[in-house]
Write a structure and sequence with these properties.
The complex is a heterodimer of chains A (about 230) and B (about 260).
Chain A (H helix, E strand, L loop, with lengths): L8 H22 E3 L5 H18 L1 H17 L5 H20 L14 H28 L1 H12 L5 H17 L3 H4 L2 H38 L3
Helix pairs in contact in A: 3-4, 4-5, 7-9
Chain B lengths: L1 E3 L4 H23 L8 H16 L3 E6 L6 H19 L4 E5 L2 H17 L11 E3 L4 H15 L3 E7 L3 H10 L4 E6 L5 H7 L2 E4 L1 H11 L2 H29 L4 H7 L1
Helix pairs in contact in B: 1-9, 3-4, 3-8, 5-6, 8-9
The chains are: A mainly alpha (about 230), B alpha/beta (about 260).
């Protein structure tokens, strides 16, 4: 058993702030206060500030990436060349996006020369649409292969549960296939039943359990009961 | 001018009732010094980390792709402290890969803090806790590469996950001895169940901290949580029966 230690003064102050913030947001969800201060507007505005703060912290991520990969390059670790590519791509893309992109800091060319903006735009467009989006799509499409190997492992007949899973999986696959209706119309009925009844019931059970645990967990965080 | 928002009054009353039930049940559990049912997955975690030490291989931890506002991430951070403590005590290298820059700051502090508590601050390196990317596919690619290069013996994926869950878990499967996962993302649970040795399902994830610390107050609170769930299940059952016989009282109350 771990012994309970007393909270420091700072921890108490932070805990009070956590409780007040949590209580404030819970209150504004259930109660409308328009005078003397409109609490709903205050809540919306503070959320906007929070979003700004979260975005500002993005720089910390960049610093961490630079430190980790700079160290890899400096120590000439295996695959250090990938770190060079990463740092180059990250700062290069950040620079191009700042000069010429929908997120550019000076799109009208007040400070940055318009010729430079025009010259960089096709490079940015190429890097974003032809490289970044293609890579993202490639990584996403890898899922198909991973699903196949995971399904193979899950569907291996080892226990009674995996046998039931295999049978249910096969019925759903057959029911979903366009040819299933030509073989037997009952396949799509069975597939619908599996998806709507046992599947939905299981999912809702997990969801209700998780939702209630989230409420209890959040209250515990707010009041630091432990 | 203070007024209750129509449509949320019933929900609010139900929430207060549930919180009250959780309080009462946890107080009772604390008085009776009740115990939690065993969570075998969490017991195994220690054994696996010891095995990683024997093999001189590292442990990988992913707190998911959710932000600090996600309860799954908060549960993951609680688990990270436990994992970091075990790894540091047993001199096992720990690698944490983050997708969110705010979570990064917390994970960095958590791991640093555990190194400092163990008196091994000098062993903490900048690449122990890393930021990969805020884009989920870039994160997936980064983690997949990391798992192949570092070859961790134990992979721990706990938190909020989306499409990248299967990619990183499958990539980890080929190298790691053991994989441990925990999430309440319904769509990702089947993937973790198929690729990981042990998976914490939704509610279990939030109980993990109490179970691991063994603190009586924490355990009592988790038991209180279950009392809240029991009330909710009873309400669902009563509501279902009433609606079947044409009585809308609970439905009308929730619409208040």
């Amino acid at each position: 058993m771990t012994a309970q230690r007393r909270m420091t003064r700072w921890e108490i102050i932070i805990q009070i702030a956590i409780f007040c913030t949590g209580f404030f947001y819970a209150l504004t969800y259930y109660v409308k206060v328009s005078e003397p201060i409109d609490l709903q507007t205050l809540s919306d505005n503070s959320l906007a500030y929070l979003t700004a703060m979260i975005l500002t912290a993005f720089g910390i991520g960049m610093i961490n990436l630079t430190r980790v990969h700079w160290r890899t390059i400096k120590l000439r670790r295996p695959d250090w060349k990938f770190s060079v590519v990463l740092i180059g791509s990250m700062y290069g893309m950040a620079l191009f996006s700042t000069i010429s992109s929908p997120f550019a800091i000076d799109p009208l060319g007040t400070v940055v020369p318009l010729q430079l903006i025009d010259a960089i735009l096709p490079i940015w467009q190429f890097l974003y649409y032809n490289v970044l989006i293609s890579i993202n799509t490639t990584i996403f499409s890898l899922l198909a292969f991973f699903i196949a190997s995971a399904a193979y492992r899950a569907f291996k007949v080892r226990t009674l549960e995996s046998t039931i899973l295999l049978a249910a999986g096969l019925l759903v696959i057959i029911g979903e296939a366009p040819i299933s209706n030509l073989i037997w119309s009952g396949f799509s009925t069975i597939q619908n039943w599996i998806m709507l009844v046992p599947n939905t019931a299981g999912q809702r059970g997990i969801l209700i359990g998780a939702a209630l645990s989230i409420v209890a967990f959040s209250v515990r965080r707010m009041i630091k009961y432990s | 001018m203070i007024e209750l928002i129509p449509g949320r009054i019933g929900q609010g009353a139900l929430l207060i009732l549930l919180i009250f039930a959780v309080f009462v049940a946890s107080r009772t559990a604390l008085r009776r010094k009740s115990k939690m049912r065993p969570l075998p997955g969490l017991d195994k975690l220690k054994e696996w980390i010891m095995e990683a030490k024997k093999l001189d291989r590292c442990v990988f931890f992913s707190p998911g792709t959710g932000g600090v506002g996600s309860t799954d991430t908060l549960a993951a951070l609680a688990l990270l402290r436990y994992v970091a403590r075990l790894c540091i005590t047993n001199d096992v290298r720990l690698i944490v890969a983050n997708e969110d820059q705010n979570v990064l700051q917390i994970t960095e502090e958590t791991v640093k803090d555990e190194y400092a508590k163990a008196g091994k601050s000098e062993k903490y390196t900048v690449d122990s806790v890393r930021f990969i990317s805020s884009s989920i596919y870039a994160y997936a690619a980064g983690v997949m590469g990391l798992l192949e290069r570092e070859r961790p013996a134990v992979n721990i994926f706990v938190g909020t996950f989306s499409a990248e869950s299967l990619e990183i878990a499958e990539a980890g499967r080929s190298e790691a001895l053991y994989q441990f996962a925990g999430t309440s993302s319904i769509d990702q649970l089947p993937f973790f169940l198929a690729t990981c040795d042990l998976t914490l399902l939704a509610g279990e994830l939030y109980s993990a901290q109490s179970y691991l610390t063994g603190n009586l107050k924490e355990i009592a609170w988790t038991i209180g949580q279950d009392a809240g769930k029991t009330i909710a299940i009873l309400l669902i059952l009563i509501g279902t029966i009433l609606v079947t016989f044409g009585n809308q009282i609970i439905v009308d109350f929730l619409k208040l």
